[in-house]
Design goal:
Layout (H helix, E strand, L loop, with lengths): L1 H20 L3 E6 L4 E4 L1 H9 L4 H4 L5 H10 L5 H12 L6 E6 L8 E8 L5 E9 L1 H15 L9 H13 L9 E10 L2 H7 L1 H18 L5 E6 L2 E9 L1 H15 L3 E3 L2 E3 L2 E9 L5 H29 L3
Antiparallel strand pairs: 1-2, 1-5, 3-4, 4-5, 6-8, 6-11, 7-8, 9-10
């Protein structure tokens, strides 16, 4: 009996040591979902996030933890509980779930894995792995795929995606409202590059991007198609508000830039089109593009006539 007792004691000590050595927050549950053991990482994570043993420790039913989370507004808690029930019932060999767990200063992500244990009384293991670094890398790749590297605005791919999404939405209840499109091309930008260099031109483009952000709403999409061409997708806007947005855009882009100690003006020709959801996105963009070029041609004709009639 002495040797058997020592073996059991040693086995228990090893089991506890192994559990505490795991880097992920881990808990062992019985067949009812009650927590029967947790490791050090689990306890430390609970303490760091305002939890207590009474709410997340040994003796607590993890299904009750999920229910409290759902009542607090966690939309994913029901899915987690369903996955745990499936594991406890032997209906699946594992249940995985990724979820955000931000703190006031850190945007964290975790991966939860629930797996069964082949014993009569200890039926499941739950572990939470910190995958923040991986998610950050994934989000960075997504950002790069949809973001203009110079200005931080959306790129062509994001613009097409957002335009198609806006055109596929149901019509707004506001009479006459639709999806506004602004297509703009900078006026007088090339002389900035030719006179001051491309680095100065890049700063002008970055300033233009900032000004466009200031005249738009959070739900609008501002994108740079390339060069000095920009587009805006403005869902749910009335004809009058669209005209007002065009006017504000022209005014803010006409504000002077300070380039190498010199004040320069880089305006913009801004074309617009108010589309109805359901129209072909490519045709709508073409209409806004044509509107912009018509405005640019009128301005160029006016400037040319002014030069022709100027006294010599």
């Amino acid at each position: 009996m002495g040797d058997e007792h020592r073996e059991l004691t040693t086995a228990g000590t090893v089991a506890v040591g192994l559990l505490d050595a795991l880097p992920d927050a881990t808990a062992v549950l019985d067949h009812d979902g009650v927590i029967v053991a947790v490791n050090r990482a689990w306890r430390m994570f609970a303490l760091d996030n305002g939890g207590t043993p009474e709410h997340t420790g040994v003796g607590v039913n993890y299904l009750d933890v999920c229910a409290r989370s759902a009542a607090a507004g966690c939309s994913d808690a029901h899915e987690v509980a369903a996955g745990l029930r499936a594991v406890l019932a032997g209906e699946t060999v594992e249940s995985d779930f990724e979820y955000p767990c931000p703190s006031p200063v850190v945007g964290r992500w975790f991966a939860m894995r629930m797996t069964p244990m082949p014993t009569p009384t200890l039926c499941a293991v739950i572990s939470h792995s910190n995958i923040t670094r991986r998610k950050s890398a994934e989000e960075d790749l997504e950002r790069r795929a949809s973001q203009d590297s110079l200005t931080g605005l959306g790129n062509r791919a994001l613009f097409v995606q957002e335009l198609e999404r806006a055109m596929g939405e149901p019509r707004t209840r506001t009479p006459g409202a639709g999806v506004g499109l602004l297509f703009l091309d900078l006026d007088g930008f090339k002389p900035v590059n030719d006179t001051f260099g491309h680095a100065a031109g890049d700063e002008v483009l970055q300033t233009v991007a900032d000004r466009l952000r200031r005249v738009t709403r959070p739900q609008d999409t501002v994108a740079r198609l390339g060069g000095d061409e920009f587009v805006l997708v403005v869902p749910g806007i009335s004809p009058g508000d669209l005209a007002g947005l065009v006017e504000r855009t022209v005014q803010t882009l006409n504000e002077p830039h300070r380039v190498h100690g010199t004040t320069v003006t880089v305006g913009a020709s801004v074309g617009s089109y108010l589309a109805t959801p359901g129209e072909d996105p490519a045709e709508c963009l073409e209409r806004a593009d044509q509107s912009m070029y018509a405005i640019k041609r009128r301005r160029e004709d006016f400037n040319r006539k002014g030069r022709d009639t100027a006294p010599s």
